[in-house]
Specification:
The complex is a heterodimer of chains A (173) and B (188). Chain A is an alpha/beta fold and 173 residues long. Chain A is built from 8 helices and 6 strands, in the order αβαβαβααβαβαβα. Classes of the chains: A alpha/beta (173), B alpha/beta (188).
């Protein structure tokens, strides 16, 4: 995937987040989210919140919802493991939660240290009662994020969209 | 050193429209003992999350004051959130840590603050502009004013005695807590 391709689907996903009235975006950076982070930071209608660990974002989103604002979280698959206990907050209180997760450890992974958590990611999310959607093709990204956003905020449920490593592209070393 | 119940009651007297998030364990019981309110969001779990819930809320409701009251153990688990708060600089967020140097809920095992960790110094080192050490009634009065007047994020460490007053148990149903909190803010 070229940079132009990544920009194109990220721009469409960002448009979905805007239409969905997302007002806060919490993130731990990942190369696959670089464009979305850039767009969030440039948008005066979105408060971008860089986190020290992904679980902070689950709590941030809960607080935002208590105050009437919709939040979305951006993280890499390794960060899903950091969220496990905090996901009980979303589950117990039925806070809407939208997580966009860039996958590592699955497609042409160079670094085997990424494999254990990457492979465990969908299972961990399901065990924590998070609805899991997956995107393998760029043309499906915006529509899938929109579907997850609708069920998260319409149904007050937690939903994660896994953006596959094949979609993100090989990491260049 | 202060009595935790009296300290929290003092901070919540004349609370006005302030929104309160309490960390799991004794801080939740202290806030409940000061008087139940729909604008209290009591945590019964999610250890380490109190400050970040307060941050999301403070950014969402910039016209209201938001107070997080938690214990040293809960704060230690979410210490990175002090860095996140400092980076965001919400002017309406105050964080009060009731520090008894122990994990009270699990049998008063010594916490890191007993071992010398200075949470106010951590907050200051993260860049939280206003940090206070509160050890007496005078300090408590000053803090009570600052949580309403500060124009930048505020962190206070309140030294409390390590005792366990009788538990005052508020509502525990998370969905009910969420719904009544939002209703009190006029959100459906």
């Amino acid at each position: 995937m070229t940079t132009a391709d990544a920009t194109a689907w990220s721009d469409r996903v960002f448009a979905v987040l805007k239409r969905g009235e997302i007002g806060q975006i919490g993130y731990v950076p990942d190369a696959g989210h670089a464009r979305l982070i850039e767009l969030s930071r440039a948008d005066p209608g979105i408060r971008d919140v860089v986190l020290t660990t992904e679980e902070e974002g689950v709590a941030l989103a809960a607080g935002a919802w208590l105050g009437g604002v919709r939040a979305a979280l951006l993280m890499q698959s390794s960060g899903v493991g950091n969220c496990i206990n905090m996901l009980s907050l979303a589950r117990n209180c039925r806070f809407p939660l939208l997580m966009l997760v860039t996958m590592r450890g699955e497609w042409a992974e160079f670094n085997q240290w990424q494999v254990p958590m990457g492979q465990a990611t969908p299972g961990v999310l399901k065990l924590c009662d998070v609805l899991v959607y997956r995107v393998d093709r760029a043309e499906d990204a915006a529509e899938t994020v929109e579907a997850a956003l609708d069920i998260a905020f319409g149904g007050e449920l937690a939903a994660a969209v896994l953006l596959s490593q094949r979609l993100i592209g090989r990491k260049r070393w | 050193m202060l009595d935790r119940r009296r300290a929290v009651k003092r901070l919540l007297a004349d609370r006005g429209a302030m929104l309160v998030v309490s960390g799991l364990g004794s801080a939740t019981y202290d806030v409940a003992a000061a008087g139940d309110d729909a604008r209290n969001f009591y945590l019964w779990g999610a250890m380490g999350g109190a400050v970040m819930i307060g941050l999301g809320l403070a950014l969402a409701q910039p016209q209201r004051r938001v107070l997080v009251i938690t214990g040293d153990g809960e704060m230690l688990m979410g210490m990175g959130s002090l860095a996140t708060v400092a980076t965001q600089r919400p002017r309406n967020l105050a964080i009060v840590v009731l520090d008894n140097g122990a994990f009270g809920e699990t049998g008063m095992q010594a916490s890191h603050t007993s071992g010398g960790v200075d949470l106010a110094a951590v907050a200051a080192g993260c860049g939280i502009p206003s940090t206070l050490e509160v050890t007496d009634e005078g300090g408590l009065d000053r803090l009570a004013r600052l949580i309403h007047d500060a124009d930048a994020p505020l962190f206070a460490r309140v030294r409390i005695t390590a005792d366990e007053p009788p538990r005052v148990l508020p509502l525990r149903d998370g969905v009910a807590l969420k719904l009544r909190f939002r209703a009190a803010l006029g959100l459906s």
